[in-house]
């Protein structure tokens, strides 16, 4: 069960990172400059001495995938790890997705803002599922942490018998 959670968690983080990269490098620029294709957006940005910053975006979002793989290796190395612990670890990584998305998208957003004289925030609605996933991960981590703490507390201190 723990290994299945770890594999699922690793895939979930990889999908999150991929979608974040797609949002930053494709969907948001297209929404920020309606009617222009990506090649034209890149040309406009280059003329304004700006760029989408793809190497940074891919590299920074790749850190999340690397962290998920590290947790997977940790789970595989510690065969005695409880499923709740593995789930908690992956929920924490998914929680970190929202701040990672913000950092990874900042340069691109500012480049689009400087190029097209628009605001630097998200223009595409596809950032919302990323933020929602991270918010749900916060809630899930709280629930999993509380359940695990309660379970451990019951093991240490048995309930009083009347």
Q: What's the helix and strand layout?
A:
Layout: H1 2-32, H2 38-47, H3 54-77, H4 83-95, H5 97-116, H6 128-156
Describe the structure.
With 162 residues, the chain is an all-alpha fold. The chain has one domain (2-156). It is built from 6 helices and no strands. The chain has helices at residues 2-32, 38-47, 54-77, 83-95, 97-116, 128-156. Helix 1 (2-32) packs parallel to helix 4 and helix 3 (54-77) runs antiparallel to helix 4. The mean pLDDT is 93.
Q: Keywords for this structure?
A:
6 helices, 162 residues, 78% helix, mainly alpha
Would you summarize the structure shown here?
The chain has helices at 2-32, 38-47, 54-77, 83-95, 97-116, 128-156. By secondary structure, the chain is mainly alpha-helical.
Q: Helical content, roughly?
A: over 70%
Q: Uncertain runs with pLDDT below 50, 5 residues or more? A: none
Rg of Cα set? 20 Å
Number of helices: 6
What amount of the residues lies in strands? under 5%
Terminal Cα separation, in Å?
36 Å
Number of strands: 0
Mean pLDDT: 93
By oligomeric state, this entry counts as single chain
Shape: elongated
The SSE order reads HHHHHH
How many structural domains can be distinguished in the coordinates?
1
Largest sheet geometry: none
Structural class, from helix and strand content? mainly alpha
